[in-house]
Write a structure and sequence with these properties.
The protein is mainly alpha-helical. The chain has 21 helices and no strands.
């Protein structure tokens, strides 16, 4: 039985009725509708685009989604590789360079370009769009299998989560030449593998994630939570954790922790500069430091002026509320652990600037918690979901207009 049929058990099984479709068709249908909307918004934004370092004024769709900001760095990696030696200025400080960008996404795009002979401007957005569709299929299965209590209360929750991720304000990056689509696929794949106790697949996803985005360390927390839960269940007689599985889980924790340092180690070895990756990251910072939480001391002041302490307090309070809400605790242990660990990572590691919104895409279990936060009746759930979807669609238009256009004028990366 599909999620929408569960949500509306009285629906007729007619081929033209989406509620009669299999779950994967429903997911892809929701995703396709969201991409049609986002594409229309990109075309609107293109008409507003003025002179900038990457595209002509009023660029075409493919230029707009494949060339600005981080996409230009990924393109440089795909076409030319990484710079050697490490670029430095007259003062000896490392300049902004491609070593800040992980290799798996541009390498995969390069492969698509070779196989299809498509240019970067077409191959990269098409690959991102396809990867995001696959990622949302895994997001659906993660919620369906990893949050049994929440899904028992509302069988439509997996598809509702897909809908909220698809219309999230920063979800346009799922079809641009950024690595978010690949990262979402790998995060969802790793979580689903843990839920299913498929540890070989989890290890493969962790290694690939370590070469995609610097977010693999929070996944070590999820593996620890998963292992602890299995050991407790075995002690109660509810599970049978074999010694082999126990050793594999210990190895997974070590793999996740070690994988977080793979790309920095590669950068240091290839350039011959110890700390090359960290020094490259510092080139993007408003202050030459990547110490945890430092960004909160100066970035909000730039965006919000004298109101920044209130904004920071409200943001942190919202993060805590999302993680402690009853709907979050109804999620399975792996999904809730990922939300908690990843949100803690976002508070500590990156600068809290305009990029933070797109980073939140990977915290997709928070979408399930949001969808299930209100409404004990089917009608209440539908009204709440419709309200959140409409709110996010409006914020998506605002995000694209303010970030994708205004930031080009000010040369501020989204």
């Amino acid at each position: 039985m599909t999620a929408l049929k569960d949500a509306a058990p009285g629906a007729r099984s007619h081929p033209a009725d989406p509620r009669a479709w299999p779950w994967w068709a429903q997911v892809l249908g929701v995703y396709a509708a969201s991409r049609a909307l986002t594409t229309a918004l990109f075309l609107w934004v293109a008409r507003l685009q003025g002179p900038n370092p990457w595209t002509p004024p009023r660029p075409g769709y493919w230029q707009l989604v494949a060339l600005p900001f981080d996409a230009s760095w990924y393109r440089d990696v795909a076409l030319h590789g990484y710079p050697l030696p490490l670029p430095t200025g007259p003062d000896g400080r490392v300049l902004q360079n491609a070593w800040a960008f992980f290799p798996l996404y541009p390498t995969a795009t390069r492969g698509v370009m070779v196989l299809t002979r498509l240019p970067w401007e077409v191959a990269a957005p098409l690959l991102s769009t396809a990867l995001a569709g696959a990622a949302l299929l895994l997001v659906h299965r993660c919620v369906a299998e990893g949050a049994p209590r929440a899904v028992a209360a509302w069988p439509g929750l997996p598809l509702a989560t897909v809908a909220l991720v698809s219309v999230f304000p920063a979800s346009p990056v799922l079809q641009v030449a950024y690595s978010e689509s690949l990262a979402l696929l790998l995060v969802a794949g790793a979580l689903l593998a843990l839920v299913r106790c498929r540890y070989g697949w989890a290890a493969l996803a962790l290694v690939a994630l370590a070469l995609t985005r610097p977010v693999v360390l929070p996944m070590a927390v999820v593996v620890v939570v998963h292992a602890a839960a299995r050991w407790r269940a075995t002690a109660r007689g509810d599970d049978e954790l074999r010694p082999r599985d126990g050793a594999t889980l210990v190895g997974l924790v070590a793999l996740a922790a070690a994988s977080g340092f793979v790309w920095p180690a590669v950068a240091a070895w290839a350039t011959g500069v110890p700390g090359a990756f960290v020094r490259t990251q510092e080139a993007w910072r408003g202050t030459a430091s990547v110490a945890p939480f430092v960004g909160w001391t100066y970035v909000p002041q730039y965006w919000f002026g004298p109101w920044w302490p209130l904004v920071v307090a409200a943001g942190w309070a919202f993060a805590v509320a999302v993680l402690l809400a009853p709907s979050s605790w109804r999620l399975g242990r792996e999904l809730h652990a990922w939300s908690a660990a990843y949100v803690a990572y976002l508070l500590a590691a990156p600068e809290p600037g305009s990029s933070l919104a797109r980073f939140l895409l990977l915290a997709f279990p928070a979408g399930a918690a949001t969808a299930g936060a209100v409404g004990r009746t089917p009608r209440g759930r539908r009204v709440w979901l419709a309200f959140v979807v409409l709110l996010m669609v409006g914020l998506q238009a605002v995000w694209l207009r303010q970030v994708w256009v205004s930031s080009v004028e000010g040369n501020w990366p989204p």
